[in-house]
Amino acid sequence: MTETRTFTEQNPIRVFLLDDHEVVRRGLADLLDAEPDISVVGDADTVEHALVRGPALRPDVAVLDVRLPDGDGISVCRELRSQMPELACLMLTSFDDEDALLDAIMAGASGYVLKQIKGSDLVSAVRTVASGQSMLDPATTARLMRSLRADPAETPAVPPELASLSPRERDILALIGDGLTNREIGKKLYLSEKTVKNHISRLLAKLGVQRRVQAAVLASHLEQPEHSEQRSAR
């Protein structure tokens, strides 16, 4: 699981920006550079430039526009994180797009926020993802999870990795999908917080994902009737 990281004025969060609008890039740079613990180390206006400049600058956080003239920020997220696994990507978009949110989560994005977000909230989002936590627009995420659970016939086939989970790991995965913390899961299942953390580390490895939020999306498949019946029978 991702370790919590801390940053200071002497060791600021290094941020890379990708947006095809110069005014937006400048505005974001001014907003973030005004914070003592954040430093914008570079920017790009196209997918091509981002894939060249990003790895060279070694940022801690990449703020990526989802829709770009020569591609999309989600593919940039996936490619940059393949080269820099510790990179936290914060997707920024004007569009409230559930498909893009799902794609971003599965590409390893740490956060997904709308451009209508307040400046102070964006700064907080950058700090949140830099520390190793997830930051997703709550309303959009909740609606996505409801739609996945409401229309199982329209969701992708149940990932085969789910079959490899033990009953206990399935229970924990379902509770992750419900948004519970490790401590809350432990209380519900009468387990220590450390035991829960160990279970989560193993189930993330089995699912082939790195972040809880990715596992939460996969947990929606456990809400299909046959799985719900299995859980209630235990």
From TrEMBL:
PTM-bearing positions, type 4-aspartylphosphate: D65
Q: Which domain of life is it from?
A: Bacteria
Q: Which GO terms describe its molecular function?
A: DNA binding
Q: Where is the HTH luxR-type domain?
A: 158-223
CDD domains given for it?
LuxR_C_like (cd06170), REC_NarL-like (cd17535)
Q: Name one Pfam family in it.
A: Response_reg
Flavoprotein keyword on record: no
Q: What SUPFAM superfamilies would the database entry show?
A: C-terminal effector domain of the bipartite response regulators, CheY-like
Keywords (A to Z) from UniProt:
DNA-binding, Phosphoprotein, Transcription, Transcription regulation
Alphabetical GO biological process terms: phosphorelay signal transduction system; regulation of DNA-templated transcription
Q: Per its UniProt record, what InterPro entries does this chain match?
A: CheY-like_superfamily, NreC/VraR/RcsB-like_REC, Sig_transdc_resp-reg_C-effctor, Sig_transdc_resp-reg_receiver, Tscrpt_reg_LuxR_C, WalR-like
- Residue ranges occupied by any Response regulatory domain in the UniProt entry: 14-130
Q: Which PANTHER family match?
A: TRANSCRIPTIONAL REGULATORY PROTEIN NARL-RELATED, TWO-COMPONENT RESPONSE REGULATOR
Q: What name is this protein filed under?
A: DNA-binding response regulator
Q: What is the lineage of its organism?
A: Bacteria, Bacillati, Actinomycetota, Actinomycetes, Kitasatosporales
